[in-house]
C-alpha cells in the first residue's frame, strides 16, 4: 500500500506526535515533567536561535569526527597487519575478543583518572567504541574476498599495492560499510554518555552535557529539545548518508552482504 | 611442427596434511602456435591444475614449462586465464569498466577515450555492445562469460587458458558460445588451451584432444581431430570420435 518508506515513516511520526500531544493536553501529568509538543518545539527553537544548541551540536560532531578518523586509521592498520602474519592475527583476534564486549561506559572511571575529564577522554571512549567492530568487519571482509579476484589481478600483471587498492579495497567495501555503520551507532551512544559524565571542557560540553545541564535546572522541555536533536542527527546520518553511500556502491553492484 | 609452448616432464602433487597426493605425472605436451588444444578427463584428474601451472598460479614440482624457448615464471598477461566461475568479473565495475581494466593495468592506449574504443570493439565481438553500462550481477551466466572473454581479448594475450568456461551454462548457450569462440579464434592469431570434461565440446572446438587418466595423472592419449570445420554436432564421424573418447575415459 505504502511503497515509500519515508512517507510511511513521516506518517507514523506525526501520529506519534499527535498521541503525545493528546496525553500532554489531557492534564494527567504535570506539564513540568510531560511538556506538550508545542513547548518542546518552542524551547528547541529558542535554543537554536540563541546559538547555544548549534554550538553544542558542532562540538559533539567535531568530537565524533575526530574519534571516527582516528578509529578508521587504527582499524585499517590493525586489520592489514593481521593479514601479514598469523602471530599478529592471533594477537588482534584476542584483543578484539576481549575489548569488543566491553562497553565504553565501563572504561570511563579509569579514563577519567588516567586522562582527566577533557576532550581527549571523550575521544578515547569513542575510539574504543568504534575500533573493535570495525576491525572485526574489516578482517572478515579481507578474508572473505574470493581468491579468484586476486588471481585475475595477478594474471593481468598487478603488483601487491595495486591489488590492494584496485581489488581488495572495493571487494571488502560491503564489510567495511557494515562495520562503519555499527561503529557510528556505538560512537554516537558513547559520545552522549561520555559528555554527560565528563561535563564541560570550557564553556562547551556537547549535546550530552546540554541535556545533563537542562536536567539540573529542571528544564524538562530543554531535555526533550536535546533528545529531539540527537534523534534527528541519528536518523539523518543513518537514512541519508549511509543509505546514499550504499545505494551508490554496494547496492548498485549487487554486493550487499 | 613448430613448437610454441612446451611442457617437459611436468609433475605436480599437493600436500594434504601428511599425505602427498600426486595429481600430474610426467606430462609432456607440445602446443603449436595458433592451435586450439583441448584437454579432457574426469573431474579430479588434474586438468585444472595443468592450466594453473600454465598460467603461473602454481609451479611444477619437477619439469619445465617453456614458451618461445623461455622458461615460464609466474603469471603474466601473455597468458590469460578464463575461469568457469562467473565471479571472475569485478562486481563493482560495469561491463565496460571490466573490459577497460586490463588496458589500464597494461597501460595500453593513450587516453581513456582510446581505451573505451578498444574495449567497445571487443565487446562487439562478443555481441554485448548494448550492455556496456550493466553491472555483472544484472547479467546472465552466458553474458558474464562473454564479458570475461572480451576482457581477456583486449589484453591481446598470446595464449588463452580456458578452464571449463562454459561448464555451468545450459546446452544451447554453450553451443552458441562455442561457435562464438571458434569465430574469434579463426579471426585472430591466438593459441587456446581449453580444459573441459564435456567430450562434445572438446570435439567441436579442438585441433587436438589430450585425454588425461585420472588414476595415473598422466596423458592417456593424444587424438588428432581431423573433422572438417564447421563441425556438425550430429554427424556420424562426430559420433564415432565421441565413442572413441568416451571409451578412454
In brief, what are we looking at here?
The complex is a heterodimer of chains A (257) and B (249). Chain A is mostly helical and 257 residues long.
Please tell me about this protein's structure:
- Chain A is an all-alpha fold.
- In chain A, 81% of the residues lie in helices and 0% in strands.
- Chain A has one domain (53-251): MetI-like fold (Orthogonal Bundle), CATH 1.10.3720.10.
- Chain A contains eleven helices and no strands.
- With 249 residues, chain B is an alpha/beta fold.
- In chain B, α2 packs across α3, α2 runs parallel beside α4 (141-154) and α3 (112-125) crosses α4 (141-154).
- The longest helix of chain B is centred in the last third of the chain and has 17 residues, at 171-187.
- Classes of the chains: A mainly alpha (257), B alpha/beta (249).
- Chain A binds chain B through residues 146, 148-149, 151-152, 154-158, 162, 167, 170-171, 173, 249, 252-255, and chain B through 55, 57, 74-77, 79-81, 83, 85, 87-88, 90-92, 101-102, 105-106, 135-138, 155.
Which terms would index this structure?
heterodimer; A: 257 residues; mainly alpha; MetI-like fold; 11 helices; 0% strand; B: 249 residues; alpha/beta; 6-stranded mixed sheet; 10 strands; 35% helix; globular
Terminal CA distance of chain A reads 28 Å
- The unreliable regions of chain A are none
Number of strand segments of chain B = 10
**Mean of residue pLDDT of chain A?**
90
From the alpha carbons, calculate the radius of gyration of chain A and give it in angstroms: 22 Å
Assigned CATH superfamily of chain A = MetI-like
User: Structurally, how many domains make up the residues of chain A?
Assistant: 1
How far from one another are the termini of chain B?
28 Å
Structural class category of chain B: alpha/beta
Write down the CATH topology of chain A: MetI-like fold
Largest β-sheet summary of chain B: 6 strands, mixed
Task: Tell me the overall shape of chain B.
Answer: globular
Tally the helices of chain B. Answer: 7
Characterize the biggest β-sheet of chain A.
none
Run of helices and strands of chain A: HHHHHHHHHHH
What's the SSE pattern of chain B?
Answer: EEEHEEEHHHEHEHEEH
Question: What top-tier CATH class of chain A fits best?
Answer: Mainly Alpha
Class of secondary structure makeup of chain A: mainly alpha
Q: Please give the CATH architecture of chain A.
A: Orthogonal Bundle
Amino acid at each position: 500500500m505504502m511503497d515509500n518508506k519515508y512517507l510511511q515513516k513521516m506518517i507514523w511520526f506525526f501520529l506519534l506526535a499527535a498521541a503525545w500531544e493528546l496525553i500532554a493536553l489531557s492534564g494527567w501529568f504535570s506539564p513540568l515533567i510531560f511538556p506538550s509538543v508545542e513547548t518542546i518545539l518552542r524551547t528547541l527553537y529558542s535554543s537554536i536561535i540563541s546559538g547555544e544548541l548549534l554550538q553544542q551540536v558542532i562540538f559533539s560532531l567535531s568530537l565524533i569526527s575526530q574519534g571516527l578518523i582516528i578509529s578508521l586509521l587504527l582499524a585499517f592498520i590493525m586489520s592489514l597487519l593481521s593479514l601479514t602474519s598469523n602471530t599478529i592475527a592471533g594477537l588482534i583476534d584476542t584483543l578484539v575478543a576481549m575489548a569488543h564486549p566491553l562497553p565504553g561506559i565501563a572504561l570511563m572511571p579509569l579514563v577519567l583518572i588516567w586522562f582527566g575529564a577533557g576532550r581527549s577522554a571523550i575521544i578515547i571512549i569513542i575510539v574504543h567504541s568504534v575500533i573493535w567492530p570495525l576491525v572485526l568487519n574489516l578482517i572478515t571482509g579481507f578474508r572473505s574476498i574470493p581468491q579468484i579476484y586476486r588471481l585475475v589481478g595477478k594474471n593481468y600483471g598487478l603488483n601487491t599495492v595495486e591489488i590492494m587498492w584496485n581489488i581488495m579495497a572495493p571487494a571488502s567495501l560491503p564489510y567495511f560499510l557494515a562495520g562503519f555503520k555499527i561503529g557510528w551507532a556505538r560512537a554516537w551512544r558513547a559520545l552522549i554518555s561520555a559528555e554527560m559524565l565528563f561535563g564541560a571542557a570550557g564553556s562547551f560540553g556537547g549535546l550530552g552535557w546540554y541535556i545533563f545541564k537542562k536536567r539540573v535546572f529542571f528544564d524538562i522541555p530543554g531535555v526533550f529539545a536535546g533528545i529531539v536533536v540527537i534523534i534527528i542527527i541519528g536518523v539523518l546520518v543513518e537514512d541519508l548518508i549511509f543509505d546514499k553511500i550504499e545505494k551508490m556502491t554496494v547496492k548498485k553492484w549487487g554486493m550487499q552482504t | 611442427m613448430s613448437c610454441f609452448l612446451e611442457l617437459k616432464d611436468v609433475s605436480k602433487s599437493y600436500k594434504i596434511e601428511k599425505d602427498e597426493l600426486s595429481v600430474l605425472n610426467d606430462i609432456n605436451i607440445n602446443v603449436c602456435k595458433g592451435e586450439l588444444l583441448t584437454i579432457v578427463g574426469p573431474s579430479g584428474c588434474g586438468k585444472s591444475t595443468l592450466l594453473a601451472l600454465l598460467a603461473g598460479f602454481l609451479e611444477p614440482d619437477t619439469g619445465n614449462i617453456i614458451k618461445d624457448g623461455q622458461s615460464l615464471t609466474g603469471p603474466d598477461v601473455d597468458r590469460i586465464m578464463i575461469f568457469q566461475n562467473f565471479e571472475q568479473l569485478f562486481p563493482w565495475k560495469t561491463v565496460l569498466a571490466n573490459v577497460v581494466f586490463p588496458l589500464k593495468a597494461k597501460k595500453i592506449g593513450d587516453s581513456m577515450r582510446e581505451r573505451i574504443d578498444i574495449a567497445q570493439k571487443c565487446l562487439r565481438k562478443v555481441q554485448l555492445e548494448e550492455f556496456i553500462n550493466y553491472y555483472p550481477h544484472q547479467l546472465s551466466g552466458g553474458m558474464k562469460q562473454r564479458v570475461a572473454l572480451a576482457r581477456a581479448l583486449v589484453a591481446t594475450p598470446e595464449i588463452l587458458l580456458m578452464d571449463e568456461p562454459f561448464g555451468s551454462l545450459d546446452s544451447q548457450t554453450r553451443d552458441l558460445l562455442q561457435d562464438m569462440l571458434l569465430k574469434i579464434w579463426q579471426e585472430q592469431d591466438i593459441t587456446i588451451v581449453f580444459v573441459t570434461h564435456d567430450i562434445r565440446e572438446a570435439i567441436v572446438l579442438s585441433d587436438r584432444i589430450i585425454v588425461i587418466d585420472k588414476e595415473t595423472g598422466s596423458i592417456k592419449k593424444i587424438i588428432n581431430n581431423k573433422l572438417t570445420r564447421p563441425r556438425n554436432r550430429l554427424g556420424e564421424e562426430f559420433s564415432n570420435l565421441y565413442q572413441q573418447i568416451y571409451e578412454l575415459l
